[in-house]
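New to this. Explain the following:
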Amino acid sequence: MRKIFRIVLTLSLFLVLTLWSAPATFAQTGGTQVHITQVDNSQFPQVTVYVSVTDASGQPVGVDPNTIQISENGQVMQPTNVSGGGQGGIGPLTTMLVMDVSGSMDKNGKIDGAKAAAKAYVDQMRPEDQAGIMVYNTRTTYLQPLTTDHAVLNSAIDSIKTGGDTAMYDALIAAEEALKDVTGRKAVIVVTDGLDNSSSHKADDVITGIGPAGLSISTIGLGDASTKSQQGLDEAGLKSLAQQAGGAYSYAGDSAALSALFQLYGRALQNEYAITYTSPSNLRDGVNRSLTVSLVNAGVSANSQYNPGGVLPEVSTQSWPLFAGILVILLALLAVPMLASKGLQLFSGSGGGFRKKGRVKLGEAPGSSAKGRVKMR
């Protein structure tokens, strides 16, 4: 019985474990692309969905915020706040620039181009935006913690040196951890010229880590993939990672293209829309909610999902008596085998006098040479 109880309890906990968010998808019509880049449910049941609307080249497209419609589990939500999509943007933006500094980046001036591109990104940051710098080869170094100071960021970029193999997935896990407690819109932009050959983590680990961190990852492949020395560039892997992580993938053949991409990513991030609503399913019950974002009358939509969390599900006030009753029953089931075992032990102890032989032994009487003994059976 005790074993059965443990099995039931384990299965119950498993069913309510948080599955977090799933990969977002995007759609496009007539060149317009709609993309769910981040879902922030840190203030659940208040949920903020970040939406990117761009043209086919990735340039931000302005739309009437009233034409953006969000549905949760098929039910249209009424926004409590909509911001972004123009002057002022979505508010403070946090970016982690993750740069490949493996030995191959030292060839053909790639590291110099990457440094120039990172500086160009810093230069277009707004006063309220902040960024950090991580570099990686076989190890990840948090070169510059998050700051709004452009001069400090540029100084850190200038100090970058190259050498070693490539462990990109490990670096992205470290970036997610560094951004975990940051609120608002946050993004990772990673640039690499090769194939990950040294990470202890996999791409799936990075995607799984996005749930708690609530961020997007964009990737940039650097170099000339048509040459023999660049055949290791894992474009398929970089595209897949970006698509699942709510970001974008682009390829840069030279430093000028790389610099343009960094600035393009920055503009797109700053011009996203942040749409906040209150979920009608307001319990942290560990159950996924599906999301659909549509442009009304444009035939464009994007799908995603999020999980409100909850290792043990919350229950409403009216459900507490039921919950308490179930708990009492489970505890009773656990106690039954123990009580039964204790009862058998007591019964065995009380009947012992009837099964054992009793004996009284009289010692030798004073002054007598004879020994007396009486046995009682």
